[in-house]
Automatic annotation (TrEMBL):
Domain notes: Consists of three domains, a large central CORE domain and two small peripheral domains, NMPbind and LID, which undergo movements during catalysis. The LID domain closes over the site of phosphoryl transfer upon ATP binding. Assembling and dissambling the active center during each catalytic cycle provides an effective means to prevent ATP hydrolysis. Some bacteria have evolved a zinc-coordinating structure that stabilizes the LID domain.
Native species: Paractinoplanes ovalisporus
PANTHER family, A to Z: NUCLEOTIDE KINASE
Residue ranges, annotated region (NMP): 31-60
Protein name: Adenylate kinase
Keywords of this entry: ATP-binding, Cytoplasm, Kinase, Metal-binding, Nucleotide biosynthesis, Nucleotide-binding, Transferase, Zinc
PROSITE patterns on file: ADENYLATE_KINASE
Pfam assignment, any one: ADK_lid
Length: 217
């Protein structure tokens, strides 16, 4: 069983790299942000609370995040392991996580802030079907419209310049100290997130002594 945490600032590719790791290693991708976004899109009570927080560029409170993570992991549908993406984001969450679960490795995707801004401010989302786009590398066929359902694309509430700056500040103030906590157990592996998606995935696998990555096609 393999249990990983993947960390990095917005735009570093956590979701993409997590999905590639999970695809052929039979791991479960637990993306905390996706859980919250699903609730926002489906207008749940949790979603309304998350929408207010994200629109202000703030992070969701510790109690709520920990409860969501605990409920998800308690399903025990991860027979071969998991990759947790988007958690923990501060010292308290890290301590909760280390007390509750044994982690094999923390994958830390490193990305300069100017590249973070370039990537994040180019992201678009279809509010109807949830399809993600990036105007740098994954543009829709018809500008501003979803290829799947034709709905108008929008910028995520947490992808505005103001919200991004708030999240960058929060990352440096709260999330980086998490790496120090995990580092005491010598499980943190720093990976350069600037190369191509395939190159980053291969670097992760080589670092963790995992089976080689074989790109599709």
């Amino acid at each position: 069983m393999r249990k990983f945490v993947i960390m990095g600032v917005q735009g570093s590719g956590k979701g993409t790299q997590s999905e590639l790791l999970c695809a052929d290693l039979d791991l479960v991708h637990i993306a905390v942000g996706d859980i919250f976004r699903w609730n926002v899109q489906n207008h749940t009570k949790l979603g309304a609370q998350v929408r207010r927080t994200m629109s202000a560029g703030d992070l969701v409170g510790d109690d709520l995040v920990e409860a969501v993570v605990r409920e998800r992991l308690d399903r025990h549908d991860w027979n071969y392991g998991f990759v947790v993406d988007g958690f923990p984001r501060n010292g308290r969450q890290a301590e909760f996580f280390m007390e509750s679960y044994d982690i094999d490795a923390v994958i830390h995707l490193e990305l300069p802030e100017d590249e973070v801004r370039r990537r994040v401010l180019s992201r678009r989302l279809c509010p109807n079907c949830g399809m993600d786009y990036n105007l740098i590398a994954d543009r829709p066929e018809v500008e501003g419209r979803c290829d799947i359902c034709g709905h108008e694309l929008v910028t995520r509430a947490d992808d505005t310049p103001e919200a991004l700056e708030a999240r960058l500040r929060d990352y440096h103030e709260k999330t980086k100290p998490v790496l120090d906590l995990f580092g005491r157990k010598e499980v943190v592996h720093n990976i350069d997130a600037r190369p191509t998606v395939d190159e980053v995935q291969q670097a992760i696998r080589e670092t963790l002594s995992l089976p080689p990555y074989k790109p599709a096609g």
